[in-house]
Amino acid sequence: MTTTATPVLAQWFEHMDSEDPDRVLGMISDDFVMSVQFSKGAGQSAEFIGDRAGLVGYLEQREKSVLVHHIDIGVTAGGCEMVLGRTTRDGAFEASFTATAQIDEKGLVRRLLIARTPEVSFD
Asked: Does the structure show a pLDDT above 70 at 63?
């Protein structure tokens, strides 16, 4: 796991995996914008978009403390953190994901793009 190269995203996913994922709301800038491309496989997908309100909506529909995010590769470049990882459910592979976050001068997430799919594994 490479988390030291991407400390903000490492913290983000730690919060998302916890009993209190709403803590990510304290990690976003005032001009935050996001898109989460969420595939369940077999061509079934949804996109969650927006600003703070969009993130709140995404958090409301999520299962809490069910999935665990594992960052396998992480890099920071040009004010952005980028990761490739996987989610597991009860220790079993569920999906691969990529996430890119633009981090502002205060260390807050300004832009967030996440894509996930169970159709591709990087094992």
From this structure: yes
Instruction: For residue 23, give the nearest of 56, 71, 69 by alpha carbon.
Output: 56
Q: How far apart are CA 74 and CA 120, in angstroms?
A: 18
Among residues 41, 37, 15, the alpha carbon closest in space to that of 26 is found at 15
Going across the sheet that includes 80-89, the strands are 44-50, 28-41, 109-117, 92-103, 80-89, 67-77
- Per DSSP, helices labelled H in the chain are 7-16, 52-61
Q: Residue 3: its pLDDT value, please?
A: 52
Grouping H, G, I as helix, E, B as strand and the rest as coil, residue 38 is strand
In terms of phi and psi (left: phi > 0; alpha: psi -120 to 50; beta: otherwise), the region of 98 is beta
Record the pTM. 0.92
Q: Distance between CA 113 and CA 82 in Å, rounded?
A: 10
Q: Determine contact, residues 74/65, Cβ cutoff 8 Å.
A: no
| pLDDT level of residue 2 (50, 70, 90 thresholds) | very low
pLDDT average, residue stretch 39-44:
92
